[in-house]
Design a protein that fits this description.
Blueprint (H helix, E strand, L loop, with lengths): L4 E5 L4 H12 L3 E6 L4 H7 L4 E5 L14 E4 L13 H22 L3 E7 L10 E2 L10 H14 L6 E7 L1 E3 L7 H11 L3 E3 L5 E2 L2 E3 H11 L7 E5 L6 E2 H11 L6 E3 L9 E2 L2 H7 L6 H12 L2
Parallel strand pairs: 1-2, 1-4, 2-3, 4-5, 5-7, 6-15, 7-12, 8-11, 9-14
Antiparallel strand pairs: 10-13
């Protein structure tokens, strides 16, 4: 693998930080874009081959002229305890992505990797979600991520792009997804409410596996704009997931079965990612067990 100059956006966030670290350790030159410096920024600044740029992708920021690839993880998402207006998400997710794509056209990059979300699908009714699942009434966050996908699809004559519709991404100090929130409740000994307890669950990827996958696909020879869905292998039932988190954290939490929710449960397909990009998903039980151990102090 030839070393590349990779621009990583959102590098002070959970996903961007780990991706930037993994690529730098593999010998790539990294320009890490952050809007608000934090402890992760300090760690990155001490890594050889990493340059930090502080700026707002939707506002004022000076980006490098010579870049081989971009990994665009920066985004504003809703979440428990987080108040994000529609206008903020449009600005941070659509305007910022549009300006970044314009810059990439001008400097003639080769490859653009975009962290999208399963939220683009909206109201999912299929038992298994893949790249061809129908999009139906997504929320504003899903809409903003999908608009980013459409802008990349219009740029196929300028550079190759890979769009990854991500499930919950977990790891050390991960934030704002069902598994992270459930483990937080377990660590506090709180009662945990679950819906669809016998439904199968593989809507998760560990940040280590995602970072390794990004490293792997940087040498991809595919052309145009490709979309992938990724998740784990060997699904667990919802109640098994929660029982595993409780057991691994030695929690006193109890589980309350809330019956079936209006949202139909679904599995995530790994077939295209595995067949065309060599993605090797790990078993859900292994990912969740690792996640619990990383976050139990």
């Amino acid at each position: 693998m030839l070393n590349k100059h990779v621009l990583v956006t959102g590098a002070s966030g959970f996903c961007g930080f780990h991706v930037a670290m993994n690529l730098a350790k593999a010998g790539h030159k990294i320009t890490a874009v952050v809007r608000t410096p934090n402890d992760r920024t300090n760690v990155l600044s001490k890594i050889e081959g990493v340059q930090i740029i502080i700026g707002d992708l939707a506002g004022e920021v000076v980006l490098p002229q010579q870049i081989d690839a971009v990994v665009h993880t920066a985004a504003t998402s809703p979440g428990e305890g987080v108040n994000r207006s529609d206008s903020i998400m449009i600005r941070d997710n659509v305007v910022a992505t549009s300006r970044l794509i314009d810059h990439c056209r001008k400097v003639k990059i080769r490859f653009f990797i975009y962290f999208s979300s399963l939220s683009v699908y909206g109201d999912i009714r299929d038992h298994t979600v893949d790249e061809n699942t129908v999009i139906s009434d997504p929320d504003i966050y899903g809409v903003t991520k999908y608009l980013g996908e459409l802008m990349l699809a219009e740029s196929t004559s300028a550079f190759q792009s890979l769009i990854i519709r991500l499930p919950g991404v977990i790891g050390p100090e991960s934030v704002r997804n069902w598994l992270t929130l459930t483990l937080e409740k377990a660590l506090k000994g709180e009662e945990i409410l679950i819906f669809n307890q016998t439904a199968e669950f593989n809507n998760v990827i560990h940040i280590e596996d995602l970072s390794a996958f990004i490293l792997q696909v940087l040498d991809s020879q595919n052309s145009g704009s490709e979309v992938l869905t990724v998740g784990s292998e060997k699904p667990l039932k919802i109640h098994e997931v929660v029982e595993l988190l409780i057991g691994e954290s030695a929690s006193r939490s109890t589980i309350k079965d809330m019956g079936y929710s209006k949202k139909a449960p679904f599995l995530v397909s790994n077939k295209k990612a595995s067949r065309e990009y060599g993605y090797v998903p790990r078993a859900a039980v292994d990912i969740i067990r690792q996640f619990a151990k990383e976050n139990v102090t």
